[in-house]
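Journal club side-thread
Mid-discussion, someone asked how the predicted structure for our own chain would compare to the paper's figures. Pasting it here so we can look after the session.
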Amino acid sequence: MTSASVKGRSGPRRAQEKGPPGAAARDRAAWFLVLPALLPILILSVGPLLYGIALAFTDAQSGRTRSTQWIGTLNFQDLLHDTLFWDSFRIGLIWAFGVTVPQFLLALGLALLLNQKLRMRWLARALAIIPWAMPEVVVGIMWRLVYNPDAGILNETIRDLGLGGGRDWLTGLATALPAVILVGIWAGMPQTTVALLAGLQNTPHELHEAAALDGAGAWRRFRTVTWPAIKPIALAITALNFIWNFNSFALVYVLTSGGPGGRTRLPMLFAYEEAFRYGQFGYAAAMGCVMVAVISVILACYLVGRIKGGEER
């Protein structure tokens, strides 16, 4: 066999292995287009996350003249015995579940209602998303006025109905956390409603008509037609809501600043106080690592559930 024939056979094979002409150029162009969106994520999210993880293994404190030393896992060992942090962690879980579950149920009911052919439905949909358009700080200030013990609309209504003299909802040990949870439900309902409403509108109407012709009632149609169609959206938005609620800061900070007596001190508030009130940056970073680990576990459980659900289908 001549060298020319070998070259003739090996040439096309090497060209095939390299891919079609221009593939490398297209890959470079794709990376060039993705880079503007990728850089802010790397600089503003991934970079600070890695720096915070590294900071958790140091004794970093406030003070420009103080040197930072590597202390290994000492911050995490102290964190294991910090009852105040674990109490805030418990409050954070109560807050996250207390907001996420009612938020989803109420949003589902509202989405089912807004999916009906009602008069002025466009106006009802616009009004339903108003809390979503308001910054959390504005929502917190507004609800502080609602809960005001002297001139708040809630206490004024209670007095007008003759149900008592009202109370200070945000400073009472028994009422502060439920009052804040109520605000969290109200503020987060619109985004859940919009997501579920989009899923309802993508459900073929013919399936509901066929189920109705078969004699299925409203509950059976919801269970056999509506819920399977919106289940993936419901699981996704619930997981995201739980993460967002567990990481809440601005709303609770404006309403109560973690009081009274730490009854509304969420983990994020506790870490904020350790870092910026007491200057314990390394210890606060360790708290942040614990919260990141919890969120990672939640995301892993969600992804595993989605993968198993896809395999069953």
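Post-session note: Residues 148 and 155 are 8 Å apart (CA to CA).
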